[in-house]
Design a protein that fits this description.
Blueprint: E1 5-10, H1 16-28, E2 33-38, H2 46-54, E3 77-80, E4 95-98, H3 113-137
Parallel strand pairs: 1-2, 1-3, 3-4
Helix pairs in contact: 1-3, 2-3
Amino acid sequence: MTAKSVLFLCVANSARSQMAEGLARGVLGPSVRVQSAGSMPSTVNPYAVDVMREIGIDISSQQSKSVETIARASVDTVITLCAEEVCPVFLGDVRRIHWPIEDAASADPALTRDQMLARFRKARDEIRARLDAFAARD
């Protein structure tokens, strides 16, 4: 089955799913509709914006969205990115794939900016590797 529309889901739709959305647009190409959403949407994390900018992808205009706002008919593949958290549920007859990516976001005040960027780069690179493999076999 070749994906025509991919929805990336995580909890806050602030980092992992936003980075996946930005990466997938380039990896999967313009013929695949790419969306992201979460069960508790917030705002796009500035660290996600920064690490994506490092590789030439601008996600600064993307917005955090609720999974409830995504039309079921607009999706044929759902990729969940939650690791320890409970992933949002997307109802519908879709292909489901799970990539457990550790949440890069942290409220720990002891983490420096460089440490936070390293966490976000790790998540970005893991998502990119999985996307490359997905595109190669899909």
